[in-house]
Amino acid sequence: MKCPYCQDPSTQVVDTRENEDGDTVRRRRRCMACDKRFTTYERVELQMPLVVKKNGSRVDYDRDKLQSSMMLALRKRSVATESMEAAIDRIEERLVTLGEREVASDRIGELVMRELKKLDKVAYIRFASVYRNFEDLDEFSDAIREVKKPRVRRAKVT
Questions:
Q1: What percent of the residues of the chain are helix, what percent strand, and what percent coil, each to the nearest 5?
Q2: What residues contact 124, with CB distance under 8 A and at least 6 apart?
Q3: The whole model's pTM is what?
Q4: 40, 70, 103, 138: which sits with the fewest CB atoms below 10 Å from its CB?
Q5: How many CB atoms lie within 10 A of CB 86?
Q6: Which pLDDT tens digit goes with each residue over 30-50?
Q7: How far is CA 71 from the centre of its chain?
Q8: Can you spell out the DSSP letters for 112-130?
């Protein structure tokens, strides 16, 4: 593994940990040349389906693109990076288990919205407003009503 700071190929693993699900390994490394530390992640590489965009073009699935769009929705929200990574892992797992060679970008968008709804309601609204192309306040109101939980009143026990 090359050092991201000095590009030297001699690095040493200082610490290794698996995530809770056991599907990702986090390694802390130290560069033998410049003595800086950095983190790498190891995960199984699965064959992801091609993404069919709205215009009909097909592109390779790109985890970084998915991550950047979720990070944008979660910007300035108090959601741990590990939670977002776990959500992305669940989306990817779902895409793989579909067993399809191609998947519509709309379907990925719906999976992202489902995960964002669980992570953070505000991030969900942000993403949905762009994804669903809200054009007026009524559409925002509908989306807000969708994520708002009705308060349940409990009967008093006497």
A1: 40, 20, 40
A2: 73, 113, 116, 117, 143, 147
A3: 0.60
A4: 138
A5: 18
A6: 999 999 999 998 887 668 899
A7: 8
A8: HHHHHHHH-HHHHHHHHHH
